[in-house]
Amino acid sequence: MRRLAFFLCCGVATAHADLRLDVPADLAARLRPHLAAESGERRLRQTSTDILATEGYFSPQIAIDTQGHDLLLRIDPGPRTHISSAEVEITGAVTPERLAALRERWLLPVGRPFRQEDWNNAKNQLLSDLLAEEHAAARLLDSLADIDPDTQRAALQVSYDAGPRYRYGELEIDGLYRFRPELVARYNADVRPGKVYRAEEVQALVHALQSSPYFATVRGELDLAQAVSDGEADSLRAPVRLTVQEQPVHRARFGVGASSNTGARVEASYSTIDFLRQAWELDTGVRLEEKRQTFYSDVFLPPMGDGVRYGAGFVAEQSDIEQLRIQRQSVGVQRIEQRGRLEERLSLNWQHEKRQPGDGDWTTSRALVPNVTWTWRKLDQMLDPRRGVVLQLSVGGGTKSLLSDENFLRLYGRSQIYLPIGTRDTLSLRAELGRTFAPSRQHVPQDYLFRTGGTGSVRGYQYQSLGIKEGNATLGGRYLATASIEYTHWLNDSWGAAAFVDAGDAVDALQDARLAVGYGLGARWRSPAGPIGVDLAYGKRSRDLLLHFSLAIPF
Fold this sequence. Notes:
The protein has 4 domains: 3-76, Ubiquitin-like (UB roll); 82-161, Ubiquitin-like (UB roll) (Roll), CATH 3.10.20; 165-246, Ubiquitin-like (UB roll) (Roll), CATH 3.10.20.310; 301-554, Beta Barrel (Porin). The chain has a 16-stranded antiparallel beta barrel. The chain has a 4-stranded mixed beta sheet with strand order 1-2-4-3. It is mainly β and 555 residues long. The protein is globular, with a radius of gyration of 33 Å. It has 6 helices and 29 strands. α1 packs across α2.
C-alpha cells in the first residue's frame, strides 16, 4: 500500500510543534483535517483510531515518536473489515416481487468493504425506495453492524416496517381564491384517485404548478391522517393535499436599457394571469429602441390536461437597421408542448411587410407560414450553465397558392454546447446553419431570410451588417452559417474574463460564401438574471474595433 508523508502544524501541551504523519495515501485526505486540530498524543491516537474505524480499519497500529518539539505519527491501518453477511428484513404489505427488487438493490452486498458512510447511505436509500412508491408510512425499525475485529468481518442486520400500501384519494387544494380547481387539474397528468401512490408524481405536479404563472408557492403531500380503507387488505386510500399561494393577478413593468445591437430603449408592459376572468395569460407592451420600435400583445390559454398550451399574438414593428427600413405586422397562433427535455412549437403566422433599402423603392411582401420548432435542452442550470447542450431545429415555409407572394421553405438549426474546464472556467461552442429554398429572395419577408453580425452572432461587426448588399443597405440572404468559440475564466463568484473567436456570413449563393471573422476579449458579471457581458471585438473583414454589450435596468 502506497504511503504518504506530510507535515501538520499541531499544538501540544506546552508548545507548538510540527506533526509529521506517515500514513497510506488513500487515508491521508480523511485524517488530515481532523489531526491538524488536535493536541496531545492521547488525543491524536484517539482521533486517528475513531476515523480509521469509520473506514473499516478496527485494528490499527499507531506509533508516536517525539523528536524535540516535533512529533512523528506512524499509522499502519491493518487489514480492512469486509461484509460477511447482510440480513435485510422488511415487514408490512410488501408484494413478493417488490420485496425481491428492494433486496436486490441493497447497496452493501457480501464482500464489500465496510465503511460507516456507506452503511448509513445503504439504510437511508432502502427507506427512500420504500417511501417513494406505495409505502408512504415506511420506517426504519432497527439496524446493527456487528464488527469482529479479529476476523475482519462485519455482519449487518437491518429491519423496516413498510406499513400499508397507499393509493391516491381525491385532490384537496388549500389557498385557491381567484382560480378554480379546474385550473390545477390542467397541470395534473398522473395524480388520479385509485392509482398507486408515487412520490415523484406528486413532486412533478408541485413542480408543474410552481413553474406556471399562476402560483407563487406550492406544497404537496399525501395526507396520511385522512387515510381510509381501500377495500383491500393492508391497502389505504389517502387524499393528496396541495397548499398553494396565488400570484398577483396584474403586473405593470417599466424599464430602460441599452444594447449595442439596437441602441438605447425604454419599455412599458402590462400582464395579467386572469384575462377576461378565464385564467388566460395576457402580455402586452411597447418597446421603443433607437433602431426598432415594437408593439406586441400575446394571449396564452392554460395548458390542456396533457400539458399542451395554445396561444395567439399580434406584433407591429418598424425598424431601420443597416439602411434597411422595415414596417411589418404579424398575427399568429401557436401550440406549445413540453415532452421531457424537448419543447415543440407549432405555429401559423401571417405577415405583411414593407421594406425600403437605402433610398430605393418600397417593396411589399406577404406570407402565411406554418412553422415547427423543436428545442432540446440538457443544462445543469438555466441562467448560468457550465455544462450542457441546447439544440434547436426550425422548419417553415409559404406557398403562392395560400396567401404568400413567393414559394419558399426555410430550414434553421442552432446548437450551443457548454463544457466545464477545471472548477471555475467554461468553454462555450455555438453554431448556426440556415437555408431558405426559394426561386428568389425578392418577395420573401426578411424574417424568413438571414442577416447576421453583432452581439449574439458575429462580434466585431455591426448588428445585421453581414448579408446581401444593395447600395448602402444590407438585406437578408438565403444561406446562413456562423460559429463561435468562447473561453470564460471566472476570477471569483461574480466576475470573469472571456476570450472568443466568431465567424459567419449570410449570402444568397454558396459561391459567394466568405466567412467574416471577429475576435476579442470581454468581461462577465453574474447578475441575478444571468451573466451580463461587455466585449471588445475586432472584425477582420471590416477592420473595425467595436464594443458589444447588453444591459437592462428594470424599475
